[in-house]
Amino acid sequence: MKSIREIYRIGRGPSSSHTMGPAFASALIKRENPQADAFHVVLYGSLARTGRGHQTDKAIEKALEPIPVDVEFDLETGNLPHPNTMDLFAYRDGRPIGALRVMSVGGGAIKVEGRSDADTPEVYAEKSFAEIAEYCKHRNLRLSDYVERMEGPEIWDYLLKVWQTMKAAVDAGLSVTGELPGGLHVERKAQYLYNQRHIDESAATRENRIVCAYAFAVAEQNADSGIIVTAPTCGACGVVPAALKYMQEQKSFSDEQIARALGVGGLIGNLIKSNASISGAECGCQAEIGSACSMCAAALAEVHDMGIDQIEYAAEVAMEHHLGLTCDPISGLVQIPCIERNAVAAMRAINALSLANFLTSTRKISFDMVVETMRETGLDINNRYRETSEGGLAKLYK
Questions:
Q1: Range of 146's domain?
Q2: Integer Cα distance of 147 and 156 in angstroms
Q3: What is the pLDDT of residues 263-288, one digit of tens each?
Q4: How far apart are the C-alpha atoms of 397 and 17, rounded to whole Å?
Q5: In this structure, are 91 and 146 located in the same domain?
Q6: Alpha-carbon distance 109 to 112, whole Å?
């Protein structure tokens, strides 16, 4: 598996696969063809169907500026190597000088057809949670120790930067009101939710309100093209920071402890990405929000000093109860139902933590099994419910 740095990418929303990935691909063809005076980009599949809502064309134009580019939305071509496929062409004096076929595979990562990704080194030899658990138990290591052994101690500096960016996204989202762009007239709700204090509010109600406010804050920043961290995607970027920030405030965990928790959460995301998918266009929203919830539950378990089996159970429960979740963004925007889903998943991660504290010894399902199930379920989901905006809420909303 690759470094968990690829799970936590710092950048602008609203979509890692529809904004970040195409921007990276555009920068690549520009870099490889410095003499080009024009570009043409063809978007297929989910990129074509929801690209305008996700601002894919604007991300491509920005990455290629000041050189002009024509962006084409091809809604007809099928038999694609990936639902997020794009062709990029470079021209000089009207003649083609370069071309790339690129797949945006989720979390901002891209694959170029005909090229290996060998330039990105393999960091983890173990390919499953079972293999990692065996490695750690044999050597008396915590999962966070395993991350450090594989990545090197410098990973904590990177994750501390990730954590500072996550907290900044929460603060920025809480400081802003108004309407999100895109034409759905969705009002920002994070600040309103955060300020709805009541004298007789129970501890449980307060936890729900604050965690959800934090998740709304980050997800709204993402929807407004703000700076966020993929965890593992832009569309699911609010889950991990919301729950971890609340727990840090309640229990005074240090930033260093949170960084180690992010390491374990990133490890879970890495396993999902490697063995299934973190792309909504490939496996539905279970691959984005479900993965984020699983990462978050594992991170919470780590920061609460739980053992490997408890961490596995927390991550498994969090994913299992998102199985089958469809991706049906209205108008292709990362707003409805995406923002609310971040809040619900953050609370579900906390619930998974609680269950892991009591019920780990009773579990029947392994984390590896639920990841395999998620993959198979995602591939079985009808294409209309995999980030095409052709079914579900996206179809019925008027």
A1: 129-396
A2: 10
A3: 999 999 999 999 999 999 999 999 99
A4: 24
A5: no
A6: 10
Instruction: Provide φ and ψ at 327, rounded to 5°.
Output: -115, 105
Give the torsion through C-alpha atoms of 264, 270, 276, 277, to 10 deg.
110
- For helices 289-303 and 338-359, the axis angle rounded to 10 degrees is 40
Residues 217 and 139 in one domain: yes
Supply the angle between the helices 308-320 and 289-303 in degrees, to the nearest 10: 160
What's the token pair of residue 369? 């099994």
Which DSSP letter does residue 287 get? G
Q: Is residue 122 part of a domain?
A: no
Provide the total of helices (H) and of strands (E) in the chain, helices listed first.
Answer: 16, 7
pLDDT digits (tens, 9 = 90+) for 317-371: 999 999 999 999 999 999 999 999 999 999 999 999 999 999 999 999 999 999 9
The partner residues of 327 in beta bridges, in order of sequence, read 386
Q: Is 170 exposed, middle or buried (0-12, 13-18, 19+ CB in 10 A)?
A: buried
Would 124 be classed as within a structural domain? Answer: no
Q: 3-state DSSP: the chain helix, strand, coil percent, rounded to 5?
A: 55, 10, 35
As a whole number of angstroms, the distance between CA 40 and CA 319 comes to: 39
**Do residues 165 and 252 share a domain?**
yes
Indicate the DSSP class of residue 109: E
